Amino acid sequence: MSDELKYLSQRAARGAMNRRDFIGRAAALGVSATFANSMLGRAAHAQGAKKGGALKMGLVGGESTNSLDPATWLTQVPQNFGLTWGETMVVQSPDDGSAQPLLAESWDASSDAAEWSFKIRKGVTFHNGKEMTPEDVAQTIRRHSNEETKSAAVGILGDIDDIVVDGDNVVFRLARGNADLPLLLTDYHLIIQPNGGVDEPTAGIGTGAYKVEVNEPGVRHVSTKYDGYWRDDVGHVDSVEVIVMNDATARMSALQSGQVHIINRVEPKVVALLKRAPGVVVESVPSKGHYVFVMHCNTAPFDNADLRMALKLAVDREQMVQQILQGYASVGNDFPINKSYALFTDGLEQRVYDPEQAAFHFKKSGHEGPILLRTSEVAFPGAVDAAQLYQQQAAKAGITLDIRREPGDGYWNEVWNKQPFCASYWGGRPTQDSMYSTAYITGADWNDTRFFDEGFDKVILEARAELDDKKRTEMYAQAATMVRDDGGLILPMFNDFLDAHREEVKGWVADPNHETSNLRAATRVWLDNA
Amino acid sequence: MGSSPILKLIAQRLALGVLLLLAVSVLIFAGTELLPGDVAATILGQSATPQSLANLRAELGLNDPAYVRYFRWLGGMLTGDLGTALSNGRDIADALGGRMANTLFLAAAAAILSVPLAILLGLLAVRYRNGPVDKAISGLALASTSLPEFFIGYLLILFFSVKLNIFPSVSTVYDGMAFGDRIMAVALPATVLTLVVLAHMMRMTRAAILNVMQSAYIETAELKGLSAFTVIRRHALPNAIAPIVNVVMLNLAFLVVGVVVVEVIFVYPGMGQYLVDHVSKRDVPVVQAVGLIFAAVYIGLNIIADIAAIVANPRLRHPK
Q1: From its phi and psi, is residue A48 left (phi > 0), alpha (psi between -120 and 50) or beta?
Q2: Which of A528, A522, A527, A504 is nearest to A57 (CA)?
Q3: A215 contacts chain B (CB < 8 A)
Q4: Predicted ipTM?
Q5: What is the pLDDT of residue A428?
Q6: Cβ–Cβ under 8 Å, residues A146 and A195
Q7: Which distant-in-sequence residues (6+ apart) come within 8 Å of A517 by Cβ?
Q8: Stretch 44-103 of chain A: residues touching chain B, C-beta under 8 Å
Q9: Higher pLDDT, B33 or A99
Q10: How far apart (Å, rounded) are the C-alpha atoms in residues B91 and B169?
């Protein structure tokens, strides 16, 4: 970070410079608006946040079946509430996606990245008053990674062979080298519990800034400030209340009438309206999530490289972004990684809409007749409209798409990953490796494009154990090119996270890793009128 | 001796109600038995191994014959032990008790608003039948019923909470909340529910009373020189009470079991959303418990309607 930028951000935080000027000056220094915004957020923190007040959040994604056991969390309410009372070993940086210390102070890896040692922070206490020990950490990861676990995190921890405690350290031995282990430990399921939560998984006791006060699944959750908390740069408000609001209009009206301070999942259709409402700020942050059309590379007619290329060139990505997501998205480039990931290469050429080239490849493929594209409302918000838009765009290249609207019930069991061409979506993964390993290497259960390429698998496996970031970045650029040019993925757009809050909520950190400021909005913000 | 036939009738109704409820409980239990897999398989999900399934089945007593399990389940229900939810391990009776109280509170608020209003409007409509007052009452009531409840809900939120900021749009209620706050919280949802059920009860009151108005004794009353309203109140209404009570009970039952949409819009923690959440997670013990409670509410309210009809019938009250 340049000194000039730092100086500017401090000036802006003190109010000597307004936010817009700051972002303009930062842009002149070659810094993106997102980065400048998050810098400003942290500079403001440094200026001293206001303490106190009762923060209320109205969030979609809570059911009366929710539990306090982190292993079961799938939706936004337990995730956001969970991170008020619990903490992970490592946290992902909002700026560059790198691993930052939290309950683990520092870490080292062996040269093959197969053995990792994490030094555990001292002087951190659980809400029950006991000090957190390396044994608690080891037990937590054991609980989430052993074979009988029902934890949703087991997929990313599968390579762990053995976990041992060595003094102040916890040592992980992996079956294969993995340079991303610290990033995998940022997963929100892996919050550290006393004895790993083995005895009482639903106790709701962690090391977080707030301790659980009220737990009414599907209704509301309240946590209040934990006096013994070890940090003072987060956890500004006195209490956090998360209210389950599964209805989008209910969230909007609650925010507008000031009954809640923060809401998530603002619908792109209504952002313009909400921005006009007095006292409301909309936060739009580029995410890793993407909306896609997937082709099976091993099924006719999609087993033909020219046909796949024709279909990729027949999408007008800009128009998709504008019409389907009202501009709250960024164009994709037919590989599942964007600049929100660490080790991303900006240099790859952007694929653009080219009906003539598409027609050329379509003709070359020798395929004749219409192509069936399956879609459904549940594939992603606006998937039916997007399929129809695609149909019109492809028609200009002389390609006829037949659209079949499938029922939402059973779409994920009967259509996705079964039929050769359909609409779908992907959420982000913490690392490039986990994204590619989940859905693009040979043998992955969710390889929904049936992309089987030994050369590609080799690059991914080698990159996984490579500790030199420069080399890894090159390897991932190579992998991206393979998927982009040869794979079955048509990726028109990456969607933005759209959250909104009241004006009096300050210190919002734009964080591309997960919605609502990487699920940590409650501990990062403060209330100006507190 | 005078009141014995009526007591006998009421006792008969109650016994029939209990029998019916037992039959429903058998149906609910049998229905969930017919589902593929069992509770143990549902709990263990993908991670099930034959050994762990067998262990859990033994622990839950699933190896006993169906009738033994039925009576054990029924016994639990009767003694208030509803078991624990599979999805989050919470005690069902605890979680359900709070939700039930909330639902009854909202239903009661809506009933207190809507029942007197509907009957009063029905009486007014009869008094000024076929005139502009009658037409206006019917028109407005039918219009409010025809609009979907989410639409009325959003309209009320827009005006009363976003624009005027009088009532909260979020109706979350919780233990330890002051009574006044509770009333404020349910004001909007109760109003929506009132508008939804009003027309049905009002139109039924109007029709039932108009039916009685054709009778000879009404003509006598009119000839006696009683005012039009007194005739309706003293002579027509008591004789039309049975159909009115019937439709009122039907609507009360709706208020208890059918308000999921209103619960979602206003973020109200009632039974409807609780049931929907657990159905989608295949949480069988909760579904069984809630199913039985809903059945009991329906049967109970219908018994009350029957008994009201019996009591309101002079021929049954004064046997020869």
Answers
A1: left
A2: A522
A3: no
A4: 0.74
A5: 83
A6: no
A7: A94, A283, A499, A508, A509, A510, A511, A524, A525
A8: 58, 63-67, 72
A9: A99
A10: 30
